[in-house]
Amino acid sequence: MNQVPRGRGQLLLLAALFFGPIAAATLLYFAFPQLQPQQRTNYGELITPAKPLPALKLIDSEGKTDGVEVLHGRWTWLYLGGDNCPRSCTDKLFQMRQIRTLLNEKRQRVQRVYLAPSAADLAPLQAQLAAEHPDLKFYAEAPGAGVLPAFLAPVSPATADAQAIYLIDPRGNWLMVYPGSAESPGILKDIKKLLSLSVIG
Description:
Elements: H1 3-31, E1 45-52, E2 57-60, E3 65-67, E4 75-80, H2 87-101, E5 110-116, H3 122-129, E6 137-141, H4 147-152, E7 165-168, E8 173-178, H5 184-197
Parallel strand pairs: 4-5, 5-6
Antiparallel strand pairs: 1-8, 2-3, 2-6, 4-7, 7-8
């Protein structure tokens, strides 16, 4: 005689355990938005909304002209370098190389790009850096363009840092920026998370 009420009670308890958290989360989201956690989970500064890169005309170290599509298809760490690479520059490139290496088999989904001020700087830069950074790609914008630095400059204080690193997603959107002071563990955590969540690139 007691089996039916007991079974009904168990069913109600299971329903409460299943639907209770959903109801509580819904109430929290809609009725008490001020109680939602505000702490961000990304280490770098997120560009919101992500900005599609403008049309670009890029020249590689062999003089070949490419479009912005060379920055598509993979996650790209973009470094706006000078006509030479002093110690601060080589330290930053080394940091990015080490982080990419720590991605193990996923490192092929990430490329590093050095954007030089002019095409004339590409050959000397490659001669200086290629031995230590064989995977580093070198580009410069076509003469008189200068589109990309102007595009990246006004959004964040971090972009005023000469050692900033810009993260471009595989669809060619500027997604994040890291100041020169950014530390490797935080950058590594960000890119690992992005690679695990992304089905592109």
